[in-house]
Specification:
With 177 residues, the chain is mostly beta strands. 14% of the residues lie in helices and 50% in strands. The chain contains one helix and 16 strands. The strands form three sheets. Strands 3, 4, 5, 7, 8, 9, 10, 13 and 14 form a nine-stranded antiparallel sheet that branches. A five-stranded antiparallel sheet has the order 1-16-6-12-11, with no helix packed on it. The chain has a two-stranded antiparallel sheet with strand order 2-15. The radius of gyration is 23 Å and the shape is elongated. The termini are far apart.
Length: 177
């Protein structure tokens, strides 16, 4: 009886090991992240409006509205979706996605509301976002040679009234296969 149990355990272990090796070598185990953008968005000098004596609201158009450009030939994997960390999905509308990104400051929190659009091979395509924990995920609907994520409308930024200093932000955009 003990010999049969030992043989069963050994056979099961060998079988599970073989399945694990098969999954690992066939790239089925997990999606792999690819950090795509960590460059800062430089906003320069800005003026804002004081709201309810609590915060300052700034509306700012970017001189370069393209947040991210990826050429398929420059990466080693096919992207299935993008994620922006510390973001909340506000709405999917007219093929664009509105998100709010939150960044901690010494004197409180900065929020940036952005309307984003997706271009594949130079053509605007419908962008759909979904909330995944503290990130917003954007599905890439089809294969591409070039992908671009653009800010479609001026940014709306809110800062604590007490904030003083440079106004720069970095969006952490990660690509996944």
């Amino acid at each position: 009886m003990q010999v049969m149990i030992t043989r069963f355990i050994k056979t099961t272990f060998v079988l599970l090991t073989a399945i694990s090796v098969l999954l690992i070598t066939s790239h089925v185990v997990n999606a792999q992240p690819l950090t795509l953008n960590r460059s800062p968005i430089l906003l320069g000098m800005v003026n804002g409006e004081v709201i309810n004596n609590q915060y300052i609201e700034i509306t700012k158009s970017l001189s370069n509205a393209t947040l991210l450009t990826v050429r398929q030939q420059d990466i080693k994997t096919i992207l299935q979706y993008l994620e922006i960390e510390n973001a909340t999905l506000n709405e999917n509308n007219d093929g664009n996605v509105t998100i709010t990104v939150t960044k901690p400051l010494e004197t409180g929190v900065m929020t940036i509301r952005a309307v984003l659009g997706l271009r594949l091979n130079g053509q605007h395509v419908n962008m759909v976002g979904e909330q995944k924990g503290t990130a917003v995920r954007f599905i890439i609907p089809t294969a591409f040679k070039q992908l671009a994520v653009n800010v479609e409308r001026p940014l709306r930024i809110q800062l604590p009234m007490s904030y003083r200093g440079p106004l720069n932000a970095t969006l952490d955009i990660t690509g996944w296969r």
